[in-house]
Amino acid sequence: MHLFFILFLTRIVWINGQSGNFPDCKSGPLSSFPICNQSLPSRQRALDLISRMTLVEKISHMITTSDAISRLGLPKYEWWSEALHGLAYSPGVFFGGDLPAATSFPMPINLGATFNMRLVHHIASIISTEARAFNNEDQAGLTFFTPNINIFRDPRWGRGQETPGEDPFLTSQYVYAFIQGLQRGDDERYLKIAGNCKHFDAYDLENWNGTSRHYFNAKVTDQDLVETYLPSFKTCIQDAQVASIMCSYNSINGIPACAHQFLLETIARESFHLNGFVVGDCGAIANILYTHHYRLTVEDTVAVALHAGTDLDCGIFYLLHLHDALNSKKIVETDIDQALMRTFDILIRLGWFDPPEQQIYRHLNKNNVNTLEARQLSLISAQESIVLLKNMNNALPLHIDQLMNKKIALIGPTADATVTMQGIYHGRAPFLIDPITGFKNLTTGKLINIEYARGCGISSYDEKDFAAAIELARSSDIVFFFGGIDHTIEDEGVDRKSITLPDIQLTLIQQLEKVTRSPLHIVIMSGSGIDLSYIRDSIQCSSLTWIGYPGQSGGLALATVIFGQYNPAGRLPITFYPASYVNEVSMFDMQMRPSPVNPGRTYKFYTGKAIYEFGYGLSYTTFNYTWNNNTIFSFYSIQSLIKNNSKTNRTLISLIRINVTNTGNMAGDDVVLAYVTPPNIIDGEIVPFKQLFGFERIHLAINETKEVFFPFTIEAALTIARDASKWLHPGLYHITIGQQRMFSIELEGQSTQWA
Ligand SMILES: *[C@@H]1O[C@H](CO)[C@@H](O)[C@H](O)[C@H]1NC(C)=O
Ligand SMILES: *[C@@H]1O[C@H](CO)[C@@H](O)[C@H](O)[C@H]1NC(C)=O
Ligand SMILES: *[C@@H]1O[C@H](CO)[C@@H](O)[C@H](O)[C@H]1NC(C)=O
Ligand SMILES: *[C@@H]1O[C@H](CO)[C@@H](O)[C@H](O)[C@H]1NC(C)=O
Ligand SMILES: *[C@@H]1O[C@H](CO)[C@@H](O)[C@H](O)[C@H]1NC(C)=O
Ligand SMILES: *[C@@H]1O[C@H](CO)[C@@H](O)[C@H](O)[C@H]1NC(C)=O
Ligand SMILES: *[C@@H]1O[C@H](CO)[C@@H](O)[C@H](O)[C@H]1NC(C)=O
Ligand SMILES: *[C@@H]1O[C@H](CO)[C@@H](O)[C@H](O)[C@H]1NC(C)=O
Ligand SMILES: *[C@@H]1O[C@H](CO)[C@@H](O)[C@H](O)[C@H]1NC(C)=O
């Protein structure tokens, strides 16, 4: 009896926390050492632990798959887990057992389209809750290599779908909300999980015309770096206090990112105050030698990466060659200690060494995964992300009560999309509601006949299924075509050559146009812009809806929009360029401003005419913007703004106030976008056409009015000069709300440099 009881207790203890994936700070070899003393600062705890490790043990912890050190009671740890829009397949994440699936949210490009950062924060907090539940079952790590906050510079980029879009301000707002949701929860003492901002920096090319990311040298001007490629990382590191960043595969101006001392030490650590570690993208340290040939020996490669500040290797290069570098005196052991101090510091701040009883995160379990709240949030996010691009004669929404005994045809390669709706970097979803199922769900019991014909594939040219689709269209009252692209066309490692809709899809659309009784409805699934001008201009196409990659409930979300249960309000977070764009600018050209070989990039600088502009998106209702006419024109003196700032840190110039009224006949959201156009400057400098400095998503009932506020600050008014210095220039600043130019603000005085 006694013996049984003791055995029983031992088993309980073993299950409760010391089950092999956490260090044993209760009775293990470390328990009496400072690493286990919670009253000490985390870095001091880390340093003590490191001081007890042998050199071989230290080196084994310099890579993302680090071994157990049983002598010290330190379990193995896999640093590489993924959670871009829900827990995702990766070396650290395992789906199975009690935790077969995790909530799959829409792709970040969709989340950009929602322009709703409270939503993004909520999503990230659900992701971190599910991540903790997985970690407690030893099915995920605590360190996640997410989010991807590179700027979506060129529509050909295969991983643009992983980002919230092309605008540095939007991406900064996104990363702040996302990292807060991942890292900060109800227990202020601990990181909930650790995020990672990647890829630092100027990474946005996979493999184009024979040049892959492993060889690419991004030539970036100081102006573009400060204006476009750094701001999201600054917000991530300085304001959101991310636990780690990842240096990228590419070189920047001839220096591989993971060997880039200026970017990693001077910018990330000294200027932005990174309080965490730097991990090299997987294989990126080896690339310094083997693809970039930036160093010629393994020893020099280790030294240049470690000295630049790359603390952790996702790969085995450090494991294989740190010894050689020490032996040849290219590095010293304290270089290794410093890197380990930064990585272990994060594990300590995650509570890895601390008793589970007093940590709420350690008690999350399968009941906290795939909850009703999470399922609803994924559906709402998908709804909020859907962008209505065309709606001729109010073709949408369809009114279910007018459809009795009608036949609706769903045709095309994405009508039955399931995993495709998840985009890339996804995990195993608890369920996937494809568009067909979504349509059937909303029309159940209404005597509406919904039929499906595939018609064609995404891109392979084969017309064998055309006839059945055309026959179905001919006999139907309403016809939808579901097209777009998928991971065979845009993916990690895969950039696009063309930004048109695949020929086979356009051919089928044209044939359907000839036989349908009423104009076609088109739905496009994609993570990037497509030249949809044919559909935009065809009077045979009555509506056009872009749904990105909308996640597990994407098909249901779409159906609620089509049938008017949800009023769409997504706005494009990217410019949809004409097909000719790819012939007008090289994929390798990192410059944002127009030049003789570049028509300019993004809504800020593109000089051509977009198919659909950044910020574009329709609603089933109408909104009216009004403002207090007293503020139509105002003056401020630059000198007094500067003086105010040095006295009080006050950077506000003017609070822009707008009344938004729902003047139509359906309740719905509006996304109010605030842009500034800076004055033209005399020395021939190109300024943006406009730049976003505020946005707000609001819900308005019919006839309801809400006031929204946008602080117009000194930062929003700054102009970045060619040498990357920041200036407050005198002149007229035009404020545009949505499409409406509203006020001008005049700054008077001398051009003044801003620190
Ligand atoms: C933990 O550290 C604190 C602060 O240095 C010290 O006062 C305390 O004695 C330590 N506890 C143990 C158990 O060593
Ligand atoms: C692609 O590479 C080939 C071979 O190097 C070169 O001739 C061609 O100009 C390149 N095309 C573009 C669009 O850069
Ligand atoms: C429609 O979908 C919802 C959400 O997934 C589900 O709860 C409901 O049972 C479905 N209804 C029908 C009729 O399929
Ligand atoms: C918007 O509201 C203003 C003020 O109430 C009114 O004068 C104007 O006609 C409205 N515009 C539209 C498009 O409804
Ligand atoms: C918005 O409307 C409210 C109520 O009519 C009014 O008090 C306020 O001044 C208006 N604000 C602006 C910016 O027009
Ligand atoms: C406010 O400004 C608008 C646009 O300049 C103008 O049409 C309107 O008459 C002004 N209203 C008042 C009350 O001054
Ligand atoms: C300077 O600050 C004062 C007090 O906050 C404020 O009243 C004044 O408008 C500010 N001046 C400028 C130019 O912003
Ligand atoms: C202004 O901000 C800086 C940096 O955050 C701070 O050190 C300084 O004390 C602030 N000054 C005032 C007057 O608040
Ligand atoms: C909205 O306002 C209009 C004009 O004042 C009015 O006729 C209509 O009944 C209102 N609708 C609702 C739902 O309040």
TrEMBL record:
GO terms for molecular function: alpha-L-arabinofuranosidase activity; xylan 1,4-beta-xylosidase activity. Keywords: Glycosidase, Hydrolase, Signal. Pfam families: Fn3-like (PF14310), Glyco_hydro_3 (PF00933), Glyco_hydro_3_C (PF01915). The keyword Mitochondrion does not apply. One of its GO terms (biological process) is xylan catabolic process. It comes from the Eukaryota. Residues 1-17 form the signal peptide. Gene3D superfamilies: Glycoside hydrolase family 3 C-terminal domain, Glycoside hydrolase, family 3, N-terminal domain, Immunoglobulins. Residues 670-741 form the Fibronectin type III-like domain. SMART domains: Fn3_like. Belongs to the glycosyl hydrolase 3 family. This is Fibronectin type III-like domain-containing protein. It comes from Rotaria sordida.
